[in-house]
């Protein structure tokens, strides 16, 4: 992996990553030269026992720009700079212009509940320079690089003592609220462990203390024995519709042997995850022969510097469709009660995805 750090005119950081040596006019552009004036804060929700972030400056963030102005494409006209420079590189990561958390947040307002500065980080990860691409269309070694990038960002962000948890994710499709169609994801680095990963880590820790084995590790073994919901597997990685899926087309991707973070992956495990990632996204797009929306989130260990043998790095995909034309809306029982109701059996949806034929092999050059 090759990388190169740059600084934007407005003070934000940009880091380029590539499978090959990086070349080109490596001057970091920015749509604005004005420094980001963000001072988000957190307020404690006493009934739910969790923090809520407030970042009113995000109201002005970019929303569905016309194709001729793509802020995530490399700059072609210096008079109208985008976020990225021209050059030979594969993946770019930069500080979000409209962050929900920043390391410099300070002086939160006084309210009737506890408040804190939202000390964290929000980064944008541009998967490729090609605006027409998607994860499913990227080459395997490009996906392998992306996994390595997520590891590099987790390591670098986690070195900040403010940060307790790093979450890479991708929102794909207008159905999940995407406002920029260029293939990209985000990374949120939190000053606490957020409720969802905290709950999963608690369950994993409890299981590990009792069995001295990983909870997800044993669930994967049971899925392999059942052999009903597996979408992809090789020696190192697996993708499956979990037996407990909350969304009809939910899929998890994981290494078969537990690793806690991206940084702990062997090259073979990372390559296996790249093949699983390409298989799942190809099957999604091939299911109804159109781009398939989802939220993809990667869960691993906290960045507290302590060993976490209970944590098992994995991705969870939450697609919003329950049929080709009908969305699964989160409503009363999901949002109000916190209990999901799935209208389809995981085994049925797994069969649909299993039936989609895909080819993840690299094309042979003539």
From TrEMBL:
Family: Belongs to the galactose-1-phosphate uridylyltransferase type 1 family.
Pathway: Carbohydrate metabolism; galactose metabolism
GO MF entries: nucleotidyltransferase activity
InterPro entries: GalP_UDPtransf1, GalP_UDPtransf1_His-AS, GalP_Utransf_C, GalP_Utransf_N, HIT-like_sf
Pfam families: GalP_UDP_tr_C, GalP_UDP_transf
Domain Galactose-1-phosphate uridyl transferase C-terminal: 203-357
Coiled-coil residue windows: none
Record keywords: Carbohydrate metabolism, Galactose metabolism, Metal-binding, Nucleotidyltransferase, Transferase, Zinc
Cofactor(s) this protein cannot do without: Zn(2+)
Galactose-1-phosphate uridyl transferase N-terminal domain ranges (all copies): 38-194
This enzyme's EC code(s): 2.7.7.12
CDD domains: GalT (cd00608)
Organism: Nostoc paludosum FACHB-159
Principal EC category: transferase
Gene: galT
Catalytic activity of the protein: alpha-D-galactose 1-phosphate + UDP-alpha-D-glucose = alpha-D-glucose 1-phosphate + UDP-alpha-D-galactose
Name of the protein in question: Galactose-1-phosphate uridylyltransferase
């Amino acid at each position: 992996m090759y990388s190169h750090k740059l600084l934007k005119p407005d003070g934000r950081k940009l880091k380029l990553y590539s499978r090959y040596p990086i070349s080109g006019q490596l001057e970091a552009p920015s749509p604005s030269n004005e420094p980001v004036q963000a001072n988000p804060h957190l307020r404690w929700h006493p009934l739910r026992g969790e923090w809520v972030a407030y970042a009113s400056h995000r109201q002005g963030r970019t929303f569905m720009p016309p194709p001729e102005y793509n802020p995530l494409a490399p700059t072609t006209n210096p008079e109208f700079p985008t976020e990225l420079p021209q050059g030979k590189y594969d993946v770019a990561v930069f500080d979000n212009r409209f962050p929900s958390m920043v390391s410099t947040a300070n002086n939160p307002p006084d309210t009737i509940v506890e408040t804190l500065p939202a000390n964290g980080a929000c980064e944008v990860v541009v998967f490729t320079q090609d605006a027409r691409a998607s994860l499913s269309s990227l080459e395997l070694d490009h996906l392998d690089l992306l996994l390595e990038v997520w590891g590099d960002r987790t390591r670098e962000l986690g070195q900040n003592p403010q940060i307790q948890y790093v979450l890479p994710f991708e929102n794909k499709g207008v159905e999940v609220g995407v406002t920029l169609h260029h293939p990209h994801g985000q990374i949120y680095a939190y000053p606490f462990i957020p409720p969802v990963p905290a709950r999963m880590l608690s369950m994993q820790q409890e299981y590990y203390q009792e069995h001295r084995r990983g909870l997800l590790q044993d669930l994967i073994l049971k899925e392999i024995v059942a052999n009903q919901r597996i979408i992809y597997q090789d020696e190192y990685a697996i993708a499956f519709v979990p037996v407990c899926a909350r969304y009809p087309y939910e899929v998890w991707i994981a290494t078969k042997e537990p690793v806690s973070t991206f940084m702990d992956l062997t090259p073979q495990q990372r390559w296996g995850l790249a093949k699983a990632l390409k298989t799942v996204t190809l099957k999604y797009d091939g299911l109804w022969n159109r781009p398939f929306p989802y939220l993809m989130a990667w869960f691993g260990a906290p960045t507290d510097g302590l060993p976490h043998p209970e944590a098992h790095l994995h991705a969870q995909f939450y697609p919003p469709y329950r049929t080709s034309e009908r969305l699964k809306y989160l409503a009363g029982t999901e949002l109000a009660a916190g209990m999901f109701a799935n209208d389809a059996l995981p085994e049925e949806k797994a069969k649909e995805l299993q039936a989609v034929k895909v080819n993840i092999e690299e094309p042979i050059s003539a």
